[in-house]
């Protein structure tokens, strides 16, 4: 707990400063105070938690699941095929140079206001760090250890499972820790531009009503979801990387 003391202190100072400034300016439709946001969050808790949060969480879950399968598969393919690496790696980089905000409306045209338009945005924004993390991890495998295992007669699949995968896990989890918060952002962007439910959609609806506190209330929940998911990844990482020194 002591290691987080300075973070908690800094956050408290920021919130107090925000509260004071918001009260001085007194334009709640633009800059609501933390207290006003908390009150609005309490008033809207039922509709946000029971209706909009499940819709957003479904987008995040599907997007992350597909990104994991897609990212790991592409990373393994590039690791074992130089031709695929040369063909796919530039495309991966290019995919991240296109503004997501520009592609989101296109996904809405393709998939309509269904969940898949939001999932597509989430996949596009999350599969890159997962893919690159896994690929770099596989590529960082100790070549001398690999040659040693080959002299012992281990097959290619055995070397992959016993050496390359464990070697790739630290980099993979680093990429996953980047992807998880980004999945929340991707889901919110998708819902902001085209949805009928979800926290991003609700925030946008509140904006059209000039309800500043209503805009911030779902954002607080989105932030909390991102923090919880990040902690879950940390717990899983700690379990699989018990051998790593603290």
UniProtKB/TrEMBL annotation:
Membrane spanning stretches: 55-76, 88-113, 119-138, 178-195, 215-236
- What cellular component GO annotations does this protein have? plasma membrane
Q: Which positions fall inside the ABC transmembrane type-1 domain?
A: 53-240
Q: Which InterPro entries match?
A: MetI-like (IPR000515), MetI-like_sf (IPR035906)
The record's annotation in PROSITE patterns points to: ABC_TM1 (PS50928)
Where would you find this protein in the cell?
Answer: Cell membrane
What biological process terms from GO does the record include?
transmembrane transport
Instruction: Give the keywords, sorted.
Output: Cell membrane, Membrane, Transmembrane, Transmembrane helix, Transport
Q: Which residues form a coiled coil?
A: none
User: What topology does it adopt in the membrane?
Assistant: Multi-pass membrane protein
UniProt lists the family membership as follows: Belongs to the binding-protein-dependent transport system permease family.
Q: Which PANTHER family match?
A: ABC TRANSPORTER PERMEASE PROTEIN HI_0355-RELATED, ALKANE SULFONATE ABC TRANSPORTER-RELATED, MEMBRANE SUBUNIT
**What is the name of the protein in this document?**
ABC transporter permease
Q: Which organism is it from?
A: Metasolibacillus meyeri
């Amino acid at each position: 707990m002591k290691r987080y003391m300075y973070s908690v202190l800094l956050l408290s100072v920021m919130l107090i400063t925000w509260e004071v400034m918001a009260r001085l300016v007194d334009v709640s439709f633009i800059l609501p105070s933390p207290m006003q946001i908390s009150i609005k969050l309490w008033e809207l808790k039922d509709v946000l938690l029971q209706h909009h949060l499940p819709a957003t969480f479904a987008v995040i879950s599907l997007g992350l699941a597909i990104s994991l399968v897609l990212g790991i598969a592409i990373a393994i393919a590039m690791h074992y095929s130089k031709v695929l690496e040369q063909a796919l790696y530039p495309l991966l980089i290019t995919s991240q140079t296109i503004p997501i905000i520009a592609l989101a409306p296109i996904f809405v045209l393709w998939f309509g206001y269904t969940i898949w338009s939001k999932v597509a945005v989430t996949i596009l924004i999350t599969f890159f760090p997962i893919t690159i993390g896994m690929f770099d991890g596989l590529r960082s495998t100790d070549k001398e250890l690999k040659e040693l295992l080959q002299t012992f007669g281990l097959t290619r699949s055995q070397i992959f499972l016993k050496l390359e995968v464990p070697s790739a896990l630290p980099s993979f989890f680093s990429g996953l820790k980047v992807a998880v918060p980004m999945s929340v952002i991707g889901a919110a962007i998708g819902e902001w531009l085209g949805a009928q439910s979800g926290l991003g959609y609700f925030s946008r609806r509140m904006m059209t009503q000039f309800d500043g506190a209503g805009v911030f209330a779902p954002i607080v929940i989105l932030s909390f979801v991102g923090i919880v998911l990040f902690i879950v990844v940390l717990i899983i990482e700690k379990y699989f990387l018990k051998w790593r020194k603290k």
